[in-house]
């Protein structure tokens, strides 16, 4: 038909190949080696915060001789930790708007002031007790950041295949601090000698020696916190220059929108209840572990070892499960159900052992230690898996706000339990501590059993 040869323009393809998109600027990501230094500083601060919070529970018998603390006083000292979560919305806003550096500096400053306040060596006992309570409260105000910022730090600094592990390390170091106090306190501070053969003078000298050893531990904790505060002040960047993943660089919801979405998300609230009840009950119960194990003829040192191994075992098992979750995605729910099922069985075993007069089951030291440690291992190891599940459930809500809400709920449960224990001890006679403590053990563990069963049901929905 007389058609000529085609021109160069006519031979151009109608559909442009996708290689031209490579000229566009993709989202760059880079992983920095300094992320491990940032994680180490944060984890050590969380360890010291947990260590100061749980300082008085493991040495409650020694504190009673040194400062005249009653059982209700010990419960109040532990209660200041959950009370510190009252202004949690302010700390979450600070983390969301100003970043991790400023919020961590503010929290660390509270820790330094609290450790310094309770370390002032005054001779007047009433004023000294007020300073100790004030120091514990200031340390509790650092709790919202130390217990909630772990997932935020891992998302900001770590790639996706290391995020669950980093979350586990940052979140569980506060529990390791609590475990360390179970060992440091009873080993450095001697238990009181209450034998009747002692004279009044020798008993007074013994109380002074106990007070000096407690003062030594408080000085050491103050020095460690001050050194960490200086390290954070000198070097702790708010975020890396280039984010480690696309998720870290993505736009998140605003503070107000995040709170509204969390409170209207029924699935999130159900999982939050499954997290808050067992972990909150266990935290409050561990804070007064020496008190509740006294009727079972468990010494102050042995109670410390029980608390230590239950917490350390939970942290080690939790990190191992986090590594497993990093390698195999999509199994968080199954892992949590198995952990909470094990905790239900262990807490039931412990409760039935304490009710030996009704169940006629054998009650030996080995059974008591094993069941108590297993409860701590199963519940404590579920914390990082829960936090990762929360983040995946409510994305793109910022990690700090999400974990702030759930840790507040857990500490609310802890505070309610310790509040009950405080008034329960005041309502009875101090001359009959065994009956009161036995009832406290049964109440705490029965609540833990019910909480685990409810948690399993919620997670199966």
UniProtKB/TrEMBL annotation:
- What molecular function terms (GO) are annotated for this protein? transmembrane transporter activity
Q: What's the source species for this entry?
A: Oreochromis aureus
Q: Which residues cross the membrane?
A: 36-56, 76-95, 102-120, 132-153, 165-189, 216-236, 266-285, 305-322, 334-360, 366-391, 403-424
Name of the protein described by the UniProt record:
Solute carrier family 49 member 4
Q: Where in the cell is it found?
A: Lysosome membrane
Gene3D superfamilies found in the cross-reference section: MFS general substrate transporter like domains (1.20.1250.20)
**Which transformation does this protein catalyse, written as a reaction?**
pyridoxine(out) + n H(+)(out) = pyridoxine(in) + n H(+)(in)
Query: What is the purpose of this protein?
Result: Mediates H(+)-dependent pyridoxine transport.
Membrane topology qualifier: Multi-pass membrane protein
Keyword Transport listed: yes
Q: Which GO terms describe its cellular component?
A: lysosomal membrane
Family, according to the entry, reads as follows:
Belongs to the major facilitator superfamily.
Per its UniProt record, what PANTHER family does this chain match?
Answer: MAJOR FACILITATOR SUPERFAMILY PROTEIN-RELATED, SOLUTE CARRIER FAMILY 49 MEMBER 4
Which SUPFAM superfamilies does the record match to this protein?
MFS general substrate transporter (SSF103473)
Domain of life, per lineage? Eukaryota
Q: Which UniProt keywords apply?
A: Glycoprotein, Lysosome, Membrane, Transmembrane, Transmembrane helix, Transport
């Amino acid at each position: 038909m007389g058609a000529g040869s085609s021109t160069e323009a006519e031979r151009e393809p109608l559909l442009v190949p996708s290689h031209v998109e490579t000229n566009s600027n993709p989202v760059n990501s880079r992983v920095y080696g300094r992320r491990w230094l940032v994680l180490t500083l944060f984890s050590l601060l969380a360890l010291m915060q947990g260590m100061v919070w749980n300082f008085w529970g493991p040495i409650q018998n020694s504190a009673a001789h040194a400062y005249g603390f009653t059982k209700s006083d010990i419960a109040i000292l532990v209660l200041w930790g959950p009370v510190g979560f009252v202004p949690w919305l302010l700390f979450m806003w600070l983390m969301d708007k100003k970043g991790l550096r400023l919020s961590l500096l503010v929290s660390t400053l509270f820790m330094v002031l609290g450790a310094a306040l309770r370390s002032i060596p005054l001779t007047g006992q009433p004023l000294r007790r007020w300073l100790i309570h004030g120091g514990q409260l200031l340390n509790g105000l650092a709790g919202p950041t130390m217990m909630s910022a772990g997932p935020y730090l891992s998302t900001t600094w770590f790639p996706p295949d290391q995020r669950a592990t980093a979350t586990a390390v940052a979140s569980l170091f506060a529990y390791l601090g609590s475990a360390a106090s179970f060992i440091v306190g009873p080993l450095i501070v001697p238990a009181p000698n209450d034998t009747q053969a002692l004279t009044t003078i020798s008993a007074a000298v013994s109380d002074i020696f106990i007070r000096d050893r407690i003062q030594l531990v408080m000085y050491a904790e103050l020095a460690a916190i001050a050194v960490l505060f200086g390290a954070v002040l000198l070097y702790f960047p708010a975020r890396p220059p280039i984010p480690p993943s696309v998720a870290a660089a993505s736009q998140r919801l605003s503070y107000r929108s995040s709170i509204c979405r969390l409170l209207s998300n029924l699935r999130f609230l159900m999982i939050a209840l499954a997290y808050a009840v067992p972990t909150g009950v266990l935290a409050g119960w561990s804070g007064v572990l020496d008190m509740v194990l006294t009727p079972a003829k468990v010494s102050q040192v042995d109670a410390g070892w029980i608390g230590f191994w239950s917490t350390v075992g939970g942290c080690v098992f939790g990190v191992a499960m986090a590594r497993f979750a990093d390698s195999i995605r999509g199994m968080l729910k199954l892992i949590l159900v198995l952990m909470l099922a094990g905790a239900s069985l262990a807490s039931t075993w412990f409760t039935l052992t304490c009710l030996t007069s009704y169940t006629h089951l054998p009650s030996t030291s080995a059974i008591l230690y094993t069941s108590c440690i297993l409860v701590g291992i199963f519940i404590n190891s579920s914390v990082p898996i829960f936090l990762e599940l929360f983040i995946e459930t409510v994305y793109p809500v910022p990690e700090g706000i999400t974990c702030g809400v759930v840790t507040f709920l857990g500490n609310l449960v802890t505070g309610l339990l310790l509040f009950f224990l405080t008034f329960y001890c005041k309502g009875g006679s101090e001359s009959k501590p065994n009956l009161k403590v036995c009832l406290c053990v049964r109440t705490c563990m029965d609540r833990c059993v019910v909480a685990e069963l409810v948690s399993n049901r919620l997670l199966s929905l």
